[in-house]
Design a protein that fits this description.
Elements (H helix, E strand, L loop, with lengths): L8 E5 L11 H9 L2 E4 L2 H10 L6 E3 L5 H13 L3 E5 L12 H9 L3 E5 L4 H9 L7 E5 L4 H11 L6 E5 L4 H12 L3 E6 L7 E6 H10 L7 E5 L7 H5 L6 H11 L4 H12 L3 H9 L3
Parallel strand pairs: 1-4, 1-5, 2-3, 2-4, 6-7
Antiparallel strand pairs: 7-10, 8-9, 8-10
The chain binds S-adenosylmethionine.
S-adenosylmethionine (SAM) binds next to helix 5, strand 7 and strand 10.
């Protein structure tokens, strides 16, 4: 096909989330024909390019240097060059840098062209079997426990399925917080999508938590979908709404299946009491 690569154009190119065969023909052509590739991690992108024998030069474009790099890329666009933006994996701009450059390029009058392809979000939704017309994608949950729980608390009544990305070292904490604040509900957890060790688990949140607690090591990349409030969350509906200590403790122990430690943390947060004090009171009940 004759090249239709335009000078002064920013191409936002999706790359594989694991399996290199998922790159599109169009992405390959664009990456080959642009003047420059702006990559989140040039070493990682270089591996992808080497695999496909693409020799285009790369510069780094990552979150910490986004503003500075954006200006450098705009300068290339002003020279009439074509630039491709890629992230480490998947679609730039989805829980990845890209928005700032896209906004500045468009504001400066340059064409911004999407080259769609893989994304962990789309891959999970495609196999989640959800009939809901809409979902709420949260990116990564906040790393700080307090912020994470506050957000989950605010989402307890959300009727749409919730989808978020999670890292292996925070998976257990996030699953436990989801269970505590949203109640048990159907979920689909995908690990290592498109890779050799791909796993797609459809189970209740409590079962998923129990399953991963059993694992000696938690590795890989995760994306999780949780049913919305009406998607079978009967436990969430029967959760005590009041401030009664014993009632809350019994519910977290018997219905949500939390450990003493997790329940203490949760009740301390909800009743705004010191965790050590809650823990001591719970010892009698557990
Ligand atoms: N822009 C990417 C996309 O379109 O999917 C997401 C980038 S975000 C920084 C990386 C996170 O996406 C990972 O921590 C993980 O939660 C999720 N992810 C990426 N690849 C994945 C895969 N192969 N399987 C499951 N989750 C994945």
């Amino acid at each position: 096909m004759e090249s239709d690569i335009g000078g002064g154009t920013l191409y936002v190119v999706a790359t594989p989330i694991g399996n290199l065969e998922d790159i599109t023909l169009r992405a390959l052509r664009v990456l080959r024909e642009v003047d420059l590739i702006a990559a989140e991690d040039t070493r990682r992108t270089r591996k992808l390019l080497n695999h496909f024998a693409i020799k285009t030069s790369c510069i780094s474009y990552y979150r910490e240097k986004e503003a500075q790099r954006a200006e450098e890329i705009l300068a290339r666009l002003r020279e009439g060059r074509a630039v491709a933006l890629v992230s480490d994996a998947g679609t730039p701009g989805i829980a990845d840098p890209g928005a700032l450059l896209v906004n500045r390029a468009r504001a400066a009058g340059f064409a911004v062209v999407p080259i769609p392809g893989p994304s962990a979000l789309a891959a999970l939704l495609s196999v989640a079997g959800q009939t809901a017309a809409a979902h709420l994608f949260l990116g990564f949950l906040p790393a700080r426990a307090g912020e994470r729980r506050k957000l989950l608390q605010a989402l307890a009544a959300e009727p749409r399925p919730l989808v978020f990305y999670e890292s292996p070292h925070r998976l257990l904490k996030s699953l436990a917080d989801c269970l505590a604040l949203l109640g048990n509900r159907p979920a689909v957890l995908a690990r290592e999508l498109t890779k050799v060790h791909e796993e797609i688990l459809a189970a209740d949140l409590a079962d998923l938590l129990a399953l991963f607690k059993e694992r000696a090591a938690i590795k890989g990349e995760f994306v999780l979908l949780l049913a919305g409030r009406d998607g079978g969350a009967e436990l969430a509906q029967s959760r005590p709404g009041g401030q009664d200590f014993a009632e809350l403790a019994t519910w977290y122990r018997d219905r949500a299946g939390l450990s003493l430690k997790d329940a203490a943390r949760q009740i301390a947060l909800e009743l705004e009491l010191p965790r050590a004090q809650v823990y001591r009171r719970l010892l009698d009940l557990w």
